Target: AAA(+) superfamily protein
Amino acid sequence: MINRMLEAKLLSLAAQFPVVTVTGPRQSGKSTLVQHAFPGYRYVSLEDEDMRGIAHDDPRMFLERFDNHVIFDEVQRVPELFSYMQGVIDRMDAPGQYILSGSQNFLLLKSISQSLAGRVAILHLLPLSYSELEETEHRPASINEFLFNGGYPRLHVRHIAPSDFFPNYISTYIDRDVRLELGVRKIAEFNTFVSLCATRIGEVLNLESLANDCDISVDTARSWLSVLESSFIAFRLHPYHKNYGKRLIKAPKLYFYDTGLAANLLGIESVDQLIESQYRGSLFENAAVLEIIKNAQALGQEPRLFFWRDSNQKEVDFITERGGRPQYAIEVKSSSTYRPRAFKNLEDIAPLMGVDEQHRFLVYAGEESFPTKHGKVLSFSDLGTLAQ
Model:
């Protein structure tokens, strides 16, 4: 298996909390991670129909059978377990009793908030980061290859072609999560919606335009976007909320949780096609925001991440906030060649937020990181350092 940076935080929290939950997309490596981190725990998959039936029929008896040092995988499939689990946890009052994992964020967190609040630590495991792949035999040959393949572990470990992996992934996702668990019925229209979302990566989201292109209502588009977010397919990045005397755009930008999936939805069939694609810059920007998020989550943190765009079309791709103040201002350029003028927006906007040159970063596709008088030029492989 490929070692995951999240494992250290997972073990640390299991020594403090009675329950630790790992949530994330399907096939992001959750089951592999928790079994590797806790080899002495019993593993129970509630994807198994027989096991799920037993848990549904008599949850109390089920938990008496598995009362301590247990991994419950896809636990959101049996939500009634959570209220019974609370009693066991309070009676035993010991850390590391249960390790839970699940791929339906909304259903899982809803059950946790109702029954296990204060007793559970929650971690997110997304597909592999570039940092995690870089130290393995599966290291991408180039950043373009990484954009094309994405980070799903099975694709790398089993050497599965993206053209084989992603159509099956999407089909499984539609059948299990969208149709059965979240109740979406207009499957053909939903497929079109997902593909059109991919064409809008890195753009300020116009929900009405998206709905019109899909021939659905704005309310349906809003609902389906929530479906994509709760199942870790796509997410919205919100604009910075402090205007510093400027009129700021209020709509969010849209990104995907995996660039390989997005590239497949865009019909990109090879690395060469990706290099020539009009979407390469958007996919590179998407990969950059994911690298920041993944490295922060590996430390058990949820980054406070925003973008800036004002009414004069001045834009900074990403702003990180810490302690209620801007920490870093980050511009992303997909070129492998550094050009000083790429710092222009940072130099115009960062001073308004009190972000000095040492905290301004230009991320590019080149291999070297180095300081300049404008700020620091950062290679993609060094992006993870911003989370430290």
